[in-house]
# Entry
Amino acid sequence: MLWASYFLAALAVFLAWPAPIALSRARWPARSPFTAMVLWQSIALAGGLSMIGAMLVWGLAPLGDNLVSASIGLWNVLMEQKPAETLGIIHVFALSAATLLGAHLVFTLMLTFIRIQRQRRRHRSMLRLLSSPVKDSPATLVINHPTPVAYCLPGGARSVTVLSDGLLEMLSQEELNAVLTHENAHLQQRHHLLLWAFAAWRSALPWLPTSQLAQVAVTELIEMLADDQALKHVDEGTLVRAIAIVAAGSPAVADTAPSAETRLELPAPDRGTMAEDWSTSVQRLRRLLTPLRPLTALQRAVALGSAGLLLVFPPLLLIAPALPG
Amino acid sequence: MATLGDLERTVMDLLWSTPGALTANELRDSIAVVPAGAETGRELAVTTVLTVLSRLEKKGLVQRERDSRPHRYKAVTSRADHTAELMHEVFAKAPDREAVLARFIGSVSESEAQTLRRLLGA
# Structure
């Protein structure tokens, strides 16, 4: 049992630092956002599982050769109210830490869900007073504001897409269609569930590189996925124009680097390292203007296969029947 | 059938378009002639209007003038201010906010916006 806990700990460390850093620097996710998304999910899930699992298995090690017999052992210790020394105080500590971490993750997930739902409900009730539905399309609302903006507010059957007056004025019918299909893709592919899970993951363990990088990456990947979906209904030029027009009219945030202006040339030549400083919108434009070759079937299979292995491994180690340890 | 939500909207529209304060009775009478609230206009009881007003008051949208009788109600801030506040929420850039809604365009830096404007103008 001990070796399983060491292996899980090593996996937890690998998934908390090197793996997410490597994946966030990789350039292939833009070529196959879906594959990258699956990989991020499995890194987060397997990372959490192996963190909890390592402590759990190590804590239980003195009580049995596998998880089942050790759990029965723990049950007996608790029922017969044996002193903690039966286990050893460090093992008791590891067990408590595993329990606390597990509870922390579950509670953060729930609290994040409640917080998001509350904000959405408030937002929706204000929208009800301030916006009016588009004719023949009750799920599309128009709000009176000069800034071009489009967003969707998920909520099951009450999901809405909101457009501003400013947006309607600036875009042609075709471009508007591109925006609407993009936003619809977010709703159809349930991207809000991903955003919720990774927002919770980040607020649960904010100091871990994996949770920060994962959230940033997932936010970017869902935009690429929605763009790809929009391209099934509108042509690239239209989508590019829509993105460029809305981005140019958006309230800009202060530049992080004063020299940024010289960096942006569209379509840009291959300057990989600088791409990290670019905002998601500009990266999306670049991706649409210079289409990248999608990953080959083999490359995708390798990435998805490793994602699958990551998910199978920790539970397998946990339930591995009586192994030397 | 009109829900309380629809009535809230009608009442707020009236308060936003009226410079002064209104009583529940005046609101009830106005709702009866507002075309959008045509179906809600008939048989609308003043108590229903008062219920809607107290809900709006709880939400911080409506203010009651306490020294007059019957009470007069007015909107706390203008429609434009509320819209601006809502848009501020939409553009807020905080990791914990991003999960609430999905915006078509995320934040763009000033120089990126400038470059895009130049490219679009060309």
The two ends of chain B are 53 Å apart (CA to CA). The mean pLDDT of chain B is 85.
